[in-house]
Amino acid sequence: MQLPAFFDRIPRFLRSFYFLTGLAFLVWMALFDSNDLLKQYDMYAKWQELRNERDYYTNKIAEVKKDRAELLSSPEMLEKFAREKYIMKRPGEDVFILTPQEPED
């Protein structure tokens, strides 16, 4: 019987009940639990993506606030914005919209 000889070569702390139970618990948590390592990685990636979106929208909000402050500060800027963005015109004016011609194939 060589089985006991094999167990004698394994250090005693590795054969401990507490060590084996702890190891089984770690394997269970890492692989089989509902919050396993793969799911943790996916949630971290999603969190990073959401943080990037938050930063993007924070910058956009700051940009819009700056533009709004400029527009409300002078009537000339407000008129320029309305004419460029919304193609508004004064009574009696004609507005021509020039679009680039598509190249023919």
Percent range for β-strand residues: under 5%
Radius of gyration: 34 Å
N- and C-termini, Cα separation: 85 Å
Structural class: mainly alpha
- Topology pattern, helix = H, strand = E: HHHH
Provide the low-confidence segments as ranges: none
Shape: rod-shaped
Number of strands: 0
On the 0-100 scale, what is the average pLDDT?
Answer: 87
Number of helices: 4
Summarize the biggest pleated sheet.
none
Helix % is 55-70%
Explain how this protein is built.
The chain has 105 residues and is mainly alpha-helical. Helices cover 69% and strands 0% of the residues. The protein contains four helices and no strands. The chain has helices spanning 3-9, 17-32, 37-73, 75-86. Helix 3 (37-73) packs across helix 4 (75-86). The radius of gyration is 34 Å and the shape is rod-shaped. The mean pLDDT is 87.
Short description:
With 105 residues, the protein is mainly α. 69% of the residues lie in helices and 0% in strands.
Fold blueprint:
Layout: H1 3-9, H2 17-32, H3 37-73, H4 75-86
Characteristic terms for this protein:
105 residues; mainly alpha
